[in-house]
Amino acid sequence: MADIHGYVVGVDFSVCYGCEKCVHACPTNVFIMMQDESERLVVDPVREDDCILCLVCEIVCPVEAISIQRAGGSDDTLASLLEGTRG
Ligand code: SF4
Ligand code: SF4
């Protein structure tokens, strides 16, 4: 059963296994590592107010534990970023 923490940056604690990829990838340092009630390592998006909706964490997460709220038009943000990399 899903166990979502965060509003803009939603992390499903039942899926996250604490690999830290999102922690290192996030440009604005949104995540902290913590232990859930069963002492499993997970990430908590405690600084989600700093999220710039770049979607990098969603992309790097191997198990799709993160879901970013797209209400702010972040798909456009991602598209423009990818556009930039294609030159
Ligand atoms: S979308 Fe970008 S800024 Fe927001 S939490 Fe993920 S990696 Fe960090
Ligand atoms: S990348 Fe995914 S599995 Fe790894 S710590 Fe982040 S949310 Fe958890």
Radius of gyration: 13 Å
Distance between the termini: 42 Å
Poorly predicted sequence stretches spanning 5 or more consecutive residues? none
Percent helix among the residues? 25-40%
Number of domains: 1
Helix and strand element order: EEHEEHEH
Using the 3D structure, state the CATH architecture: 2-Layer Sandwich
Bound molecules: iron/sulfur cluster
User: Spatial order of the strands in the main sheet?
Assistant: 1-2-5
The overall pLDDT, averaged over residues, is 89
User: What's the helix count?
Assistant: 3
**CATH topology heading:** Alpha-Beta Plaits
Structural class: alpha+beta
Q: How would you name the oligomeric state of the polypeptide chains in this document?
A: single chain
Q: Give the class-level CATH name.
A: Alpha Beta
The number of E-state strands comes to 5
Major pleated sheet? 3 strands, antiparallel
**Structural shape:** elongated
Strand content: 15-25%
What does this structure look like?
With 87 residues, this protein is an alpha+beta fold. Helix content is 26%, strand content 20%. It contains 3 helices and 5 strands, in the order E-E-H-E-E-H-E-H. The protein has helices spanning 21-25, 56-60, 74-86; strands at 4-5, 9-12, 32-35, 41-44, 66-68. The protein has a 3-stranded antiparallel sheet with strand order 1-2-5, with no helix packed on it. It has a two-stranded antiparallel sheet with strand order 3-4. A hairpin with a 5-residue loop joins strand 3 (32-35) and strand 4 (41-44). It is elongated, with a radius of gyration of 13 Å. 21% of the residues are buried. Bound molecules: iron/sulfur cluster (2 copies). One iron/sulfur cluster (SF4) binds at residues 9, 25-28, 30, 51-57, 68.
